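Students often ask why inverse folding is considered easier than folding. One informal answer: many sequences map to the same fold, so there is more than one right answer. In these notes we will look at a single instance of the problem. The structure comes first.
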């Protein structure tokens, strides 16, 4: 028996949906709370604002989905710039090479196809999944294959199931078994039947999205692009339930793959929990950008003016540094008139009152602006970081401006051991809101 035949025999079918467990009452409570909060912000915002906020999440998902597979590399600044369509984002894409831009545009088109399917409530069929693969891989003519002669480029049959085994070689020299070639169509037919079953249709979106994703990557029906198709497919169920895509950032890939490995061993709970965190993060991101886009932008106001302790304390200081750096960079971009004086200053521990359940970090960032010809015309903002006093609180830190109720709640895993892309995107939107408010006070 050849090694490929042995790997074919090792293939384990994806489980029945009834065996896909791991959803807790806490998961459901969190989903409902965040979804209701997002719905309330959507109802209060202009009609076009929500579409713009979801577009940012969709662009981030489309860019990083290719990076997860190693097609190109991204960093947080790159993802932020492309997702927000900030100044020179197209130039930054082109600097990475024409292939990166083409891959991103194909992947973005795939998420638009998913959004259309969710909006029109189209049934998930094999033909639709093959069309999704054809779309997401349309800029990828070949894929890399390890043969007896070494790595070679083979033509990628877009929109068609695999015709050769695609088991993956592991670090220990063994093979991770996917569905044998002849069983892939049968398994895909079974998967689509499950997705159309009454029990699946009535299930919670966290179970739907995580199961559909796992089933597809377990089969690995295509020669390449299975992960990108699976993440896009899972987005169907998030779009249907909360109008958001599944966003997995490249810097979350290790946690993501670890959860999938645990599911391979029969424990679905880590995958469900991972999908929960990604859903809540994306709801927060959409809500933050919705709040930011609903008010006056700092660029607009600038145009008017031209016409706990220990390691937690250390993390809080890093957050203050991130706020300071974000404010400094944004102020430089705004090009305020020369008549506007002032700037940023790090101040020692302050004595402002603390909210129940929170304690203030040791210093704050003071933003002071005034007109040189009229010193009495000034505006200020005091940026500070609060640390949760409850060790089991869902949010470990809160960023706020003294006297404002527009705060930013943050989980520790979003910022420690390093600041993740999801936090940087939310921080950027929050800083814009604070700058817009402060500049508007000065103008008034």
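Output (designed amino acids):
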């Amino acid at each position: 028996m050849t090694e490929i035949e042995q790997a074919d025999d090792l293939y384990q079918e994806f489980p029945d949906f009834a065996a896909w467990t791991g959803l807790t009452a806490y998961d459901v409570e969190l989903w409902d709370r965040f979804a209701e909060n997002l719905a309330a912000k959507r109802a209060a915002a202009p009609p076009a604002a929500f579409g713009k906020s979801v577009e940012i999440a969709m662009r981030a998902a489309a860019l990083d989905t290719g990076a997860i597979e190693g097609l190109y590399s991204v960093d947080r600044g790159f993802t932020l710039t492309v997702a927000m369509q900030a100044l020179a984002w197209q130039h930054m894409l082109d600097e990475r090479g024409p292939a990166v831009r083409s891959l991103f545009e194909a992947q973005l088109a795939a998420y638009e196809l998913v959004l259309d399917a969710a909006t029109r409530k189209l049934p998930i069929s094999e033909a639709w999944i093959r069309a999704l693969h054809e779309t997401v891989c349309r800029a990828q003519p070949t894929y890399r294959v390890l043969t007896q002669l070494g790595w070679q480029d083979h033509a990628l049959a877009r929109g068609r199931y695999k015709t050769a085994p695609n088991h993956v070689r592991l670090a220990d020299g063994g093979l991770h078994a996917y569905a044998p070639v002849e069983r892939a169509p049968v398994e895909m037919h079974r998967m689509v039947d499950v997705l159309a079953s009454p029990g699946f249709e009535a299930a919670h979106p966290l179970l739907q999205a995580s199961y559909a994703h796992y089933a597809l990557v377990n089969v690995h029906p295509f020669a390449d692009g299975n992960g990108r198709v699976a993440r896009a497919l899972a987005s169907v169920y998030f779009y249907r339930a909360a109008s958001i895509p599944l966003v997995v950032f490249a810097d979350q890939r290790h946690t993501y793959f670890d959860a999938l490995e645990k599911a391979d061993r029969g424990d679905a709970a880590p995958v469900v929990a991972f999908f929960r965190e990604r859903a809540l993060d994306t709801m927060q991101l959409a809500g933050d950008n919705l709040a930011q886009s609903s008010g006056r932008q700092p660029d607009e106001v600038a145009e008017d003016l031209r016409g706990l302790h220990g390691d937690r304390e250390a993390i809080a200081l890093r957050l203050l540094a991130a706020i300071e750096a974000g404010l400094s960079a944004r102020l430089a971009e705004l090009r305020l008139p020369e008549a506007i004086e002032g700037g940023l200053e790090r101040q020692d521990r302050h004595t402002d009152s603390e909210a129940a359940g929170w304690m203030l970090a040791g210093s704050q960032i003071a933003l002071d602006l005034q007109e040189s010809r009229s010193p009495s015309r000034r505006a200020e903002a005091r940026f500070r970081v609060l640390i949760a006093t409850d060790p089991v609180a869902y949010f470990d830190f809160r960023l706020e401006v003294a006297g404002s109720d527009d705060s930013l709640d943050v989980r520790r895993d979003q910022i420690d051991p390093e600041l993740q892309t999801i936090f940087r995107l939310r921080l950027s939107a929050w800083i814009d809101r604070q700058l817009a408010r402060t500049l508007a006070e000065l103008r008034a």
